[in-house]
Write a structure and sequence with these properties.
Elements (H helix, E strand, L loop, with lengths): L11 E3 L2 E7 L13 H18 L4 H11 L3 E12 L8 E11 L3 E10 L2 E14 L2 E2 L4 H16 L4
Antiparallel strand pairs: 1-2, 2-4, 3-6, 4-5, 5-6, 6-7
Amino acid sequence: MDRPQPNLLDGEIREGRHVMAVRVYFEDTDFTKIVYHASYLRFMERGRSNYLRLLGANHRALFEQTEQETPGFTFVVRSMAIEFLKPAYMDDVLDVVTEVTEVKGASVTQRQQVIRDGQVLVEATVRVAFVCDGRARPIPKPLRAAMDADRIRGRAIGGT
C-alpha cells in the first residue's frame, strides 16, 4: 500500500505513531470553557481516521473497494477504556497520538493519548473491529499489513 503525500491537517506518522494537532474551539468546551469529555472522543476518532489515511487507506477508496468484496462492512469501536487525567481549555493546541499496539485478524487495538505541552491529559485504549452483516470479518490484508508494519517499526525505534 503506497503512502500518500500527507496533508498538514492529517498530522504525520513519527516513529510508528500518528501525531495530529488539534486546536480547542469554543464548541469543544462546556460552560466553564474546559473541554467537554465527549470532545476528546471526536479528537481521537479524527486521529484514528487520519492515521489510516496516512497509511494509504483513503476512506472513500477503501470503502469502495471493500464494499465490492464484503458488502455491508463497517469499522466499529468494540471497546474503549479511557482515563481523563487533566483538563484542556479553550484555545489550547493539543497533540492526539495514536499507536497500534495489536493487530489481529478482525480487530486492531490502539493506544491513544491527548497531550498538551508534553503532559498527557487523556489516555485511551481502543479496540476497533471490522464487521460485515453484524459479524466480525478479517481486516483487508493490505490494511492489516500496513498497520502491523507500522507497529513493528515503532517498537524497533523505541516505541512501546
